[in-house]
Amino acid sequence: MIRAAIVLGLALVAACGDLAGLGGATPALATIQIETAGAFSAVEEPGADPPALRVALVWGAQWLTEPLCILPPEDASAAALIAAGCRDPFGFVPARVAASVPLVPDGTASLSLLALPAADVMVGAVTARVAYGSLVIYDDRDGDGTLTLGRAYQLAGREDGPPDEGGITTEDRVYAASFVSMTEADRRLAFREGGFDPATAFYPRSGCGDPPPGFSIVAAGGFTATEAIAAQLRGELPQEDPARCETASTDEPVVLTYRAPAELHELACEERRNDSSIRYREPLGDAPDLTNRTLACVGIPDFGTGAANGARQLAVSGRADDSCVGLTHYVLRGCSENPLCAVPDWDITATPPSWWPCPQDAR
Amino acid sequence: MWRAIVVLACGVGLSRTSRADDGAQLASTREETWGYRSTGDVMVDGGLVVGFPAALPTGLARGVGLGVTSGRSLAWGARAAWVTATESSLPWTVTHSDLRLRATGAVQAAAGRGVVALRLGLGGTLVHESRVRNQGMRAGLSGDALATSTFAMLPAADLDVVVALHVAGPWLLVTSGGPSIDVLDGALHGGWSAQLGLAWQP
User: Fold this and answer.
1) Mind telling me how many Å the CA of B64 is from chain A's nearest CA?
2) pTM
3) For residue A213, which residues of chain B lie inside 8 Å, CB to CB?
4) What share of chain B is helix, strand, coil (3-state, %, to 5)?
5) Which residue ranges make up each domain of chain A?
6) How far is A101 from A268, CA to CA, in rounded Å?
7) Which residue of B124, B127, B139 is in closest CB contact with A30?
8) A239-275 tens-digit pLDDT
9) What is the pLDDT of residue A301?
């Protein structure tokens, strides 16, 4: 009895591990090694302060461009408007910045992910969903330690409903990104949970195979806009070149090549609406400030149904020096969500404002 | 008329006699049911335990405990309790199972059907810690990156107020509670514990 008690006592005293409780170091769910290529000095945009380069992971949004930006322009003014106010319809659209670390002077960084992508950046059902992220190098000009995502400003209208949110200016400059657009080669961080639907059109890489479960680095060669539109008209996804597809673990370093910030500014711009819907506005009596903007009178897209019946809109781009591009849409007759609504919320076709530059609707 | 009065008086008298007999029987039954005997020095008790986890900064640990006490005004004994608590932070879900082992000494006094005691317990708490990295399984982690497990023995002490109430025969209703401390990472970690249960004192 006494011997048993002694043995038990020794065993209890010997049980001296370190309790961590709720504290202690948090192991990363994945760690991504970043390397750089090219000369930063060759693309550096002069700034007031020395550059503070950081690496960030940006999860992508499921985004659909508005029809005006993807349909063939009806004239030169529409083409100029699209060039000034539409982002790349096949470009990577950021939804959320997940992690950010400084780039060390030797041009490398180790990005530890402490949380999985949230459900709102994963596309698919809970049994088969995927998130894609772009790894970016940026100059943290506002010094907040993260990539600040900007948002396009829109001009005001005579509002009946709640006002649209305002724009956001970002001072940060993106100098490299692993995933810029589907129309060029990309290397993206994927997180897949459950199965994978090969028909998903979320940054599709059809022909490359499914991303593996969990975190991985996947690459694709990209496709042209013409190929993408043709495939869409056939009801298919554009095909990637299998020879340019890659799948690697997150242990493989990702090499980012420096580029001019002007080529990558959209990587720091989020979108107000992701479903191609448009908020139409009733023009004010006083002219909005159209300085340094591109505008065009264009037809309301009806995809050949004839529903527009010659109805036109005034589309105005943001300022040329805005950090993010976007369009403001004015119509003389319509509703905020549908310019062709049967019972319009406003109709000032008979008394357009004096500054209205477009011809009268044919309706 | 007189016959009716006599019959009524006999009826009332018989009724009174019967009621007195029932009362005596009821008192006797109550005495047998709720009477108690307390002749032994040894008391064994057990019950449900709640308290502050020995090594977690928050939470409510729940479990069971039992103990044995021997003595009258001064009593000695031993106690053991097993309680568990699970708490979460953003990265971790942590489960602590505490095995509380104490040698006890108590000062106690009888008060009517009850016994009131002040009990000091000294000993150790064996803590088993299980940590699981939140989202780790979804991310494909395995091994120590996903979950860890460890034991630790913490010196500990409890000071409890104990109230025991004789219920019937050798059975008592016992409740106790009070502050507790343990030594965690070289520092004192305060807490509390309480127990509600039954005791058997032959």
Assistant:
1) 20
2) 0.81
3) 140
4) 20, 65, 15
5) 30-78+89-276
6) 16
7) B139
8) 999 999 999 999 999 999 999 999 999 999 999 888 8
9) 87
